[in-house]
Design goal:
The chain is an all-beta fold. It contains no helices and nine strands. It has one domain. Bound molecules: zinc ion.
């Protein structure tokens, strides 16, 4: 399903993630949800749209070997972004190391579709 494309936006050469920010305590939530703040308990009316950089640090990663619908193996990363929000997404990295700088980019799947993946910052661009 393509509704996940609503989770990111291209700004120049960089991919930004779309979450929400709590106007009461400043917490950033990703993926976005309308229910309320997980940190301070403020209701959904306190959440506003918030776009933040996909640049961050590799916090953890794993390789998935079995999936009913997706070709395996593939990597999944948990990244601590510069906005201090943890984001989980696909990882495309030949030799990942915890603490390494990574950034989000779009990989073309076919003519009509792309997926968000984290790659090493040193290999990003283009
Ligand atoms: Zn809050």
């Amino acid at each position: 399903m393509s509704d996940r494309e609503d989770l990111w936006i291209e700004k120049g050469s960089e991919i930004f993630l779309r979450g929400v920010r709590c106007t009461n305590c400043g917490s950033i939530l990703f993926p976005p949800q309308p229910y309320g703040c997980e940190a301070c308990g403020a209701d959904g009316g306190s959440l506003e749209d918030f776009e933040f950089s996909s640049q961050g640090t590799l916090h953890s990663f794993t390789t998935v070997y079995v999936h009913p619908k997706i070709e395996t193996p593939y990597q999944v990363a948990e990244v601590r972004t510069e906005a201090r929000q943890y984001v989980r997404a696909r990882l495309d990295h030949p030799d990942p190391k915890v603490g390494e700088a990574v950034i989000g980019c779009l990989q073309i799947i076919d003519d009509d579709d792309a997926q968000f993946v984290f790659v090493p910052t040193s290999q990003a661009g283009g």
